[in-house]
Every structure is written in structure tokens, then in C-alpha cells.
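task queued by scheduler; priority normal; single chain, no ligands, no partner chains; default sampling; output format set to C-alpha cells
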Amino acid sequence: MNVRPDTPAPWRGRLVVLAGIVLVGLNLRIAVAAVSPILDVMGQDVPLTSAETGLLGTIPVLSFALFGSLAPLLARRVGLEPTMVLALLLSAAGEVLRAASGTAPAFLAWSVVALAGMGMGNVLLPPLVKRYFPDRIGPVTAAYSVALSISTAVPPLVALPLAQAAGWRWSVGVWAGVGVVAAVPWVVVVVRSVTARAHLRELVRRAPRPAASVVTTAGDGDARLVWRSHLAWAMAVTFAVNSLGTYTVFAWLPEILADAGLGTEVGGRWLAVFAILGLPASLVAPVLTARMRSPYPLVVGFVACWAAGYLGLLLAPAHGTAVWMVLLGLGPSSFPVLLALIGLRTATPALAVLLSGMVQGVGYALAGLGPLGIGLLYDATGSWTAPLLVLIGLLVVLLVAAWRACRPEVLGAAAERVPGSPTLDR
């Protein structure tokens, strides 16, 4: 197939990669979302103490932070695509092994392995989008953001019926199949012929790049550039506060609604609604982000939804609950905006993987303090008033950081010409 220099790269030349990106998105939250609904069933065979149950809720965020930070180092040595294959197979192995566990410590240990692969996948996806779809960052980010939302919303709905029908081990282990299937397109990319890889690189090379209005040049295109960048730190803080709120809601929403007199079962259903409501924004927000000089107005709108939802839970949790849940469901939608910005605000895929690792590593590490800190504050005060006020106050931090993160700058615009720059994009 001949492609004229002025012709955008066709989708069909990159469909295998697109399938791989979407399938990875479907795998990224399964290990988090598939267990909590079946803890009672699992406890009949492998009982967990209260401390172990709390640890199970903390492991995802800490694993995402730790192993997400390690992903750029591994990718620099072996390449983005092979690292993604390793991450997917690692997550699948962890899923199978924890399903076969006979003790709570073994289950927790293998959960770390499953979540390690998913934490690496979190970091690797934005630079892969940057590498293969520099002309379609918004739509492709939207596609895998929707897949990620599905991977959050579907397991809680089917995990318990599956556990009751086939046993909790099948309910936990069956999701390993998603990771194995997601690895197939990336294996194809790695082993395809030299001619096919050269053709794919040519398609990407001819794809038009979006231009930024403001450019920040840099004298060094390595990790030091990222860690010293005000833009990177602003994105990390924005990511941290947004994720902190999301994981705090996942951890405590059923308890908040139960204390309001609605019951834990009702709280569980509203938690599923909270997860599902991220789908529409995940589809639209990255596309709009790619078309806007600064997506800050989008972030302001999402933060307003966060604030209104928190205020509803604070003032009238048992009245107008559906409204508060809709608002809370839209609040975390700054997340797909940030995923798109990682590709849009970096000059090369090499810098995209470094920025992704830094933003998500720092962000998830700070976000891990949320569920624990809010729980301790609730225990100290005996009320949800102080915790909800703290969450509302943190939204101010998010707004300030996001203003800086959304500015139309490109990190390392001159990095390709600097000796010693990372070589991931070669």
C-alpha cells in the first residue's frame, strides 16, 4: 500500500496495535474490582481478618505506585512492547495463583503480583498511544479509557453470581483470560516481520502531529528533565488528588450510605453506579482534550461535580442520593484528561513513558493515603462530616495543580536532538 506524504496514517495499518491498547484497558482494573463483592463467599474457605481485608484494599494503590515507577526502567532496557507482554502475563499469572491460594497471606502475596502487572500496564499505555497514534491521541485514549471503565464496572456485577455458581476460585481466576488475550496483539507486534514493522513505522511517521501553542524546550531528554519539570509535578498532584478521591469513594461509600440509614446492600449498588458513570466522560473527555488549547475548563466542570456530590453526601445523603451518585460518578473524569495530556504534552514516546511513570508513581503513592487517612479521621471523630470536608478542601489543591498541568506546553521539545536522550522511540 502506497501512502502519500500528505495523507494521514490509515487506521487499518494499526488495527492490531489498537486492539492491543483496548484489550489492555479491559485488563487494568479487574484485579481490583473482582474480589470485594465475594469476600464473604471466599471467607468460608480462606478467611481474612479485618486487618488483612484493609490491606487488600490498600495493595492496589501501592502496587500501582511501586511497579508503575519501575515500568519505565524496564521499558528502556527491553522496549515498550515486550515490557507490556511481560506485564500482561504477570497479571494473568497472579490472578491464577491467587485463585489457587489456600491461605490469606498467600492470597495477598499473589494479589501483589497480579496488581504489579496492571500497575506497569497503567504506565505503559499512554506512551504506546503516543508512539503509534500521535495523530489520534484523543480518540485512542478515549477508547482505552472506556475499556478501563468497563473493567471497573463489570466484575462487581458478575463476580458474586459466578462465585455462587462455580465457586470463588473460578470467580477470581477466570479474569486471567483477559490478560492472556490482551497479550496476543503485542506478541504479534513484537514478532512480526522486519518489513511489517518498517511499514508500521512509516505509517506513524507520516501521521500529522498536533502542534502546541507554547513550547518548552529542554537541554536534557532523560528522567532528570521529567522530575525537575513544574508541568510534570502539576500533573502528578492533579492525578494524586483525583485518584485519592476515587479510591476513597470505593473504600467508604457503602459505609457512608449505611450510616445514613440506607443499608450496605444499597451502598454496594450505588458503588457500581459510581463506577459505570465514568463511561460517558471517558469517551468524550480525551477527544475534547486533544482539540482544546487548554482542557482546564473540563477539569473545572468535573471538580464542580465532585464538590456537589460531596456536599450532597454531607448534607442529605439519604435524600436525592441518585443525584449525588451521578455527580460523584462524573467527578473523577479528570483521569482520562490526564491520560491524554501525557501523550499531548511530551515530544517523544520516550519522554511519554518517563512522564507516565513519574505522574502515576507519585500520584498513586499519595492517593494511597486517602482511604486510610479518611478512615482514621472517621474513627477519631465518629462522623463523616470532617472526612467529607477534607475531601472538599483537597479539590482546591486539584484546581490549582490542574491549572498548571493544563497549560499548552510540550515537555522536551528539543530532546530528540540532545545526545543521551532515551532511545525507547527508536
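post-processing summary
- Confidence is low (pLDDT under 50) at residues 1-9, 210-221, 415-426.
- Residues 213-426 form a domain with the Growth Hormone; Chain: A; fold (CATH 1.20.1250.20).
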